[in-house]
Design brief:
The chain has 352 residues and is mainly β. Among the domains are: 3-63, no CATH class; 102-242, Kelch-type beta propeller (Neuraminidase), CATH 2.120.10.80. It contains six helices and 26 strands. The chain has helices spanning 3-9, 23-30, 38-41, 46-53, 55-63, 244-249; strands at residues 69-77, 82-88, 98-99, 114-118, 121-125, 138-142, 147-151, 162-166, 169-173, 181-186, 191-196, 204-210, 213-218, 229-233, 238-241, 254-257, 260-265, 271-276, 281-287, 298-302, 305-309, 315-319, 325-326, 329-330, 333-335, 342-351. Keywords: Kelch repeat, Repeat. It holds the Pfam family F-box. InterPro entries: F-box-like_dom_sf, F-box_dom, Kelch-typ_b-propeller, Kelch_1, Kelch_FKB95. Residues 101-295 form the FKB95-like N-terminal Kelch domain.
């Protein structure tokens, strides 16, 4: 039983969540209210607000498969030369992006920041500016409370680096500042641990987590088409060269769906590719209509659905569990764009 609820049930002086009902029954009912109405629930009473802000609330919804994934897009407004963040409820009939206000003031002009999600929190990490060296600062956004707070800083300053979540820990890898190392954040201890690795790339363009391992890809040289990729093996705490065939086709943003790797190739038009592990080959899934996509794009997945999010937060939605093609173009739906000035830096899913 939820700890917050069990404590209130044992204390008769505490006002019940719902008059006439035991709190565990009240929780059973409230937890089934869709996430888009949670802001309204918080206005009912201080007890309801405290419940919805609690870790127990998130754990209960996750345990009973009631949690809902929303998409968070970290962007840069090129006209205002500042970063911004939007959130999308993919289940909403309106399917419209909403801006998250009051980002930490010190981050607004920075470039090369990391953006990662762990539990009900999103993190802005590191970054640098024209007159500011790389920083180790970290800021935490609590999605249930809609608030930003300072978080424990990384062990070293980083800019333009890779991020990933593995075994409920955040990994920050390479980048400008201290490129031959990686940091690991443990939320249980609220501490970072620094590791060194001479083979880690200086400039990292993309990363993903698959089969309990972290993959990173470095910048491709203009003089060669060769793609360099490393894979982190947690069992040996070491970095190795990734499969050359897999790396050769990793030429765009990547996302993993049901342990299958998909990459969006934006080199000539926009097409979705899938890595076939058994044959160690890349197979085309289909092309996307140039009328819908607005490269450069990023990928994020919820269940079997891939969201291709491009400039202005325009989004193309593809159900890879039921892919259809018409004349070689993948059947998809789209979400209208917001602002032509916004470039997508990173997209993540956060469930509550």
């Amino acid at each position: 039983m939820d700890r917050l609820v069990s404590r209130s049930n044992s204390n008769p002086s505490v006002v019940p969540l719902i008059s006439g009902l035991p709190d565990d029954i009240a929780l059973f009912c409230l937890a089934r209210v869709p996430r888009r109405y949670h802001a309204v629930l918080k206005c009912v009473s201080s007890r309801w607000r405290g419940l919805l802000h609690s870790e127990e609330w998130c754990v209960y919804r996750r345990k009973h498969n009631l949690d809902e994934n929303w998409i968070y897009a970290f962007c840069r407004d090129n006209k205002l030369e500042r970063v911004c963040c939007y959130v999308l409820d993919p289940n909403s009939t309106r399917r419209s992006w909403k801006m998250i206000h009051e980002l930490p003031a010190r981050t607004l002009r920075r470039k090369g920041m990391g953006f990662e999600v762990l539990g009900k929190n999103a993190y802005l990490l590191g970054g640098c500016g024209w007159s500011e060296d790389a920083t180790s600062e970290v800021y935490c956004y609590d999605a249930s409370m809609n608030t930003w707070t300072d978080a424990a800083p990384m062990s070293t300053a980083r800019c333009y680096f890779a991020c990933g979540v593995l075994n409920q820990k955040i990994y920050c890898i390479g980048g400008v500042g201290d490129s031959r190392s990686w940091d690991v954040y443990d939320p249980c201890t609220n501490n970072w641990k620094l590791h060194t690795e001479p083979n880690i790339f200086t400039e990292i363009e993309d990363s993903f987590v698959m089969d309990g391992k972290i993959y990173v890809r470095c910048s491709t040289s203009a003089a060669t088409s060769h793609v360099c990729a490393l894979v982190y093996e947690p069992s040996t705490d070491s970095w190795l060269h990734a499969d050359a065939n897999m790396a050769s086709g990793w030429r765009g943003p990547a996302v993993v769906v049901d342990d299958a790797l998909y990459v969006l190739d934006q080199s000539s038009g926009t097409k979705l590719m899938m890595w076939q592990k058994e044959s160690r080959e890349w197979a085309p899934v289909g092309r996307l209509s140039p009328l819908l996509t607005r490269p450069p794009c990023k990928l994020v997945a919820i269940g079997k659905t891939i969201f291709v999010i491009g400039k202005g937060c325009s989004a193309v939605v593809i159900d890879v569990g039921n892919i259809g093609n018409i004349g070689g173009i993948m059947v998809s739906s789209s979400i209208p764009k917001l602002n032509d000035n916004d470039d997508i830096i990173s997209c993540k899913c956060l469930a509550i």
